[in-house]
Amino acid sequence: MLIDTACSGPFSRSAVNYNAGCKTAVSNIVMSIAVMITLLFLTPLFYYTPLVVLSSIIIAAMLGLINYQGAIHMWKIDKFDFIICISAYIGVVASSILRVLLFVARPRTNVLGHVPNSICYGNVDQYPSAQTVPGVLIHDIGAPIYFANAGYLRER
């Protein structure tokens, strides 16, 4: 997905709470139980769901958080505040798009090595004891390979 879940998770939960009409903190308890049940028992049902579908669900819920009437009212009352509000909105959208483009064009890359006493291969920077395989370079690329990042990956 295009959005980092560590920082976007609370936003999507807030959007769901708001759109469901929740008024108290009890909704957080109910939601946490629902999320726990989903993670424990229903996750296999979502395995083949494309991330684009899940992303569109979150985006649709987030659109409910935008106060269009408040923005129109702000335009009528104070145009400078409206310009600041729209500038902040456009700045967040632009920085998000820029982040996605940079992530796709310059993906994270790691050299992997065998971690002793395990069957795992790990990043040699993260696991100093990891041993690379002689004559073989195992490279972990954090994004799909295609024409926009092929040159960058070739250089790495």
UniProtKB/TrEMBL annotation:
Cellular component terms, GO, for this chain's entry? membrane
Membrane topology value: Multi-pass membrane protein
Q: Where in the cell is it found?
A: Membrane
Point out the coiled-coil segments of this chain: none
Query: Where's the STAS domain?
Result: 126-156
Positions of transmembrane segments:
20-41, 47-68, 80-102
Supply the InterPro entries for this chain.
SLC26A/SulP_dom, SLC26A/SulP_fam, STAS_dom, STAS_dom_sf
Is Transcription among this UniProt entry's keywords? no
Mention any Pfam family matching this sequence.
Sulfate_transp
Its name, as the record gives it, is STAS domain-containing protein
